Amino acid sequence: MATSLPPIASLRAFEAAARHMNFTRAADELAITQAAVSYQIRLLEERLGTALFIRERRRLLLTETGAELAVQLREAFDRLRATFESFHERAQTVLSLSVSQTFAANWLVPRLGLFQMENPSIAVRLDASDRLVDFGHEKFDAGIRSGGGEWAGLATHRLFPLAFTPVCTPSLLKRVGPVRRAEDLLNLPLISPADAAWRIWFAAAGVPDALPCPAEGPSFGVQHLEGKAALGDQGIALVAPNFFAPELRSGQLVCLFDIVADSGKSYWFAYPKRLANAGKLRAFRNWILAQAEEDKPLSP
Fold it and tell me: Is omega for the bond preceding 6 within 30 degrees of 0, making it cis?
């Protein structure tokens, strides 16, 4: 049967007294009375069944057992302090974020250097995944999610709406000929044509119940990859314009219509409410909200 540990208060009192070789200075360090130090050490001696100090009139000496225990406890407390300091430093300086692949690759990562320049003491660690993490059981400080913005136990801040429009390369557009009406897209190579987002866009364009033809086409399931496929001349992709702003501004991609369909969802910066006042989280929240405010919707 395992022997239970003595009370931590007794161990702390003994370690401090053995280090100072003085009960009064140990009491000052621990912010308790000298009598309390004596009491805790007496409890420990009773627990061990042996004396730890030899109390002489003008000095305090350690017994052989006391000296051995003092060394072991000092090393143990040093290890505990170092471990706690390591976790405390990490908690203060490392910000762990869960971010969708497209948002991370096409919006956040290109801007992160600005945050790091403004906050050199905070290191951002990204997990680029489309899975919905459980903040209660996983080691993430915050995340960026798409949806309605209502998740139990989380504080949320809206960044921008999730909206999309068809894009392709100038070379593909030249090859397929003029695209004047939304219906023209139904006979062109579409990327991920079975995605429900196409139906939303066609409805916004005045083509209800449109079924892309062919319905079977290359499908990637991640907007980041769909945009890359469009850049590779594989077809027309439905993307959020602000995720491909550099490619649209440079002319690598072109918007085919001035219709940007709103999915009814938005991107949100979300985190557990209990972390709202954490310095690293407060700094990132202020920064990303300012970045989102500057990122005005790109006109097709």
Answer: no
| The token pair that represents 275 in the structure block | 């972390």
Strand partners for 96: 125
19-73 pLDDT, tens digit per residue, is: 999 999 999 999 999 999 999 999 999 999 999 999 887 788 999 999 999 999 9
Q: Please, what's the b/e burial string for 102-126 (b: 16 or more CB within 10 A of its CB; e: otherwise)?
A: bbbbbbbeeeeeebeeebeebebeb
* Interval 190-221: pLDDT, tens: 999 888 899 999 999 998 877 665 556 677 87
> In a 3-state reduction of DSSP, which class is residue 118?
helix
Separation of alpha carbons 145 and 290, rounded Å: 17
Neighbours of 133 (CB within 10 A): 17
Contact (Cβ atoms closer than 8 angstroms) between residue 150 and residue 177:
no
Q: What is the dihedral of CA 279, 283, 284, 287, to 10 degrees?
A: 170
The pTM of the whole model exceeds 0.70: no
In DSSP notation, 207-233 reads: -TT---SSS-----SSHHHHHHHHHTT
How far is Cα 112 from Cα 108, in angstroms, rounded to an integer?
6
Tokens encoding 28: 């000052």
Task: Give the dihedral of Cα atoms 126, 131, 133, 138; nearest 10 deg.
Answer: -60
Report how far residue 254's alpha carbon sits from residue 180's, in angstroms, rounded to the nearest whole number.
Answer: 14
Per the CB < 8 A criterion, the answer to whether 189 and 234 are in contact is: yes
Residue 273 in tokens: 């409410």
Measured CA to CA in angstroms, residue 138 lies from 97, 98, 108, 133, 142 at distances of 11, 10, 21, 7, 11
